[in-house]
Write a structure and sequence with these properties.
The chain has 376 residues and is α/β, with parallel strands linked by helices. It contains four helices and 25 strands. It has a 25-stranded mixed β-sheet that branches. 42% of the residues are buried.
Length: 376
């Protein structure tokens, strides 16, 4: 008589064999995956430290912000594949090390602080160092709708992590930030501070906020692989000339002779009014391989330059202006240079002043692919 299918005994035997094989092989596969992740991490470590060795050979001591910039410019990042390990920056040796999460490190190290709650995010940002951000956070969920105060050198590393700022955020003193453009997400409140943001999605509301701002002197802002969405200004550096409008609870005011340096690479900035607003301060802005977009039509510029001696350079960027101008140098700006190299635009103006905007200042120049297109 011909058999149809398997007997129960045969099925039980097959299932038992599969279970035994799974019990043997799954831990083996898990171990292999872990070894592969650690191998990838250590190779990444070697590559990063090679870049830092070049930095040291060219310029001597390498700071944490210099190290982060070199790593991301080299196409690497600080995210480890193995969940049990992390990278730590040895300040004495000026190099990264691969350490276990449970390792206790001394004062010579800057190591990542993992953030898992909104409260710990606010505390970690104020404390500075390297913050590893997991997940998404909406400051609307905070009992105090306030900015993230940056008081000392800070690096925030995320994996496409989302941060959202409420439109009605206040300073911890209860005072809005500046008189007419409130609610930045990150705001530098102490002088001589560097903030570096990597792999983050920063979200605002288009009516009245900025996503990264400073009210302090001699600030450095670095952004790598970030997206800035739906804000009044993406990057906002302003000096109103009125200390009451510049003042934060820290007591600092940004002054006209301040230097603010901005470096941005591989970012996407989608703003309502302007992707950049530089007002009455000096410094440098370098933007590479990024997309800048604007929503507001009419008498507005994608890049608003109102600086004092500022130099801006945009390399290999895509510039999408909804308003009249790609760049407007206006409102008393003086001795500024704006350079565009290899950029793609949508045909809008490169202007010294928006129509009806007031004095254009003196000594300003706009250069596009080696040709001066506007000056005064």
């Amino acid at each position: 008589m011909k058999k149809n299918g398997f007997t129960i005994v045969e099925l039980v035997v097959v299932i038992a064999v599969i279970a035994v094989l799974a019990a043997v092989l799954i831990p083996t596969f898990a171990t292999l995956i872990k070894k592969a992740n650690r191998s990838a991490d250590t190779q990444n470590l070697r590559n990063m430290n090679t870049l830092l060795a070049i930095e040291k050979a060219e310029g001597g001591e390498v700071s944490l912000s210099d190290a982060i910039k070199a790593v991301y410019n080299g196409g690497y990042d600080l995210m480890t594949k193995d969940a049990d390990h992390r990278y730590a920056f040895n300040k004495t040796k000026c190099e990264f090390e691969y350490v276990e999460n449970t390792a206790s490190l001394g004062a010579d190290y800057e190591t990542m602080t993992e953030v898992t709650t909104l409260d710990s995010l606010e505390t970690s940002v104020e404390n500075g160092g390297i913050v590893y951000l997991k997940g998404s956070y909406d400051l609307n969920d905070s009992t105090e709708k306030k900015y993230l105060h940056v008081k000392s050198d800070l690096v925030v590393v995320g994996d496409s992590s989302n941060l959202t700022v409420p439109n009605d955020a206040k300073d911890t003193s209860g005072i809005a930030f500046w008189s007419d453009q409130t609610s930045p997400l990150f705001v530098v409140v102490n002088d001589d501070v560097t903030i570096t943001l990597c792999g983050l999605n920063l979200n605002g509301t288009s009516s009245s906020n900025s996503l990264v701002a400073t009210a302090a002197n001699n600030t450095t802002i670095n952004l790598f692989d970030c997206t800035l969405n739906d804000s009044c200004y993406g990057i906002n550096i302003r000096n109103y000339g009125d200390p009451a409008n510049n003042l934060l609870s820290s007591g600092n005011t940004i002054t006209e002779d301040a230097t603010v340096n901005v470096y941005i690479k591989n970012c996407n900035i989608n703003a309502n009014l302007s992707a950049f607003n530089f007002k009455y301060v000096g410094g440098t802005v370098t933007v590479e391989d990024s997309v800048l977009s604007q929503k507001k039509t009419g008498d507005y510029a994608l890049i608003a330059n109102e600086g004092n001696g500022v130099k801006m350079t945009f390399k290999n960027c895509t510039l999408n202006a909804a308003g009249e101008d790609i760049i407007s140098t206006q409102y008393g700006a003086k001795n500024t240079t704006v350079i565009f190299e290899g950029c793609t635009d949508n045909g809008k103006n490169y202007a010294i002043a928006l129509s009806g905007s007031g004095p254009a200042g003196i000594g300003n120049k706009i250069i596009k692919d080696g040709t001066t297109v506007a000056s005064n």
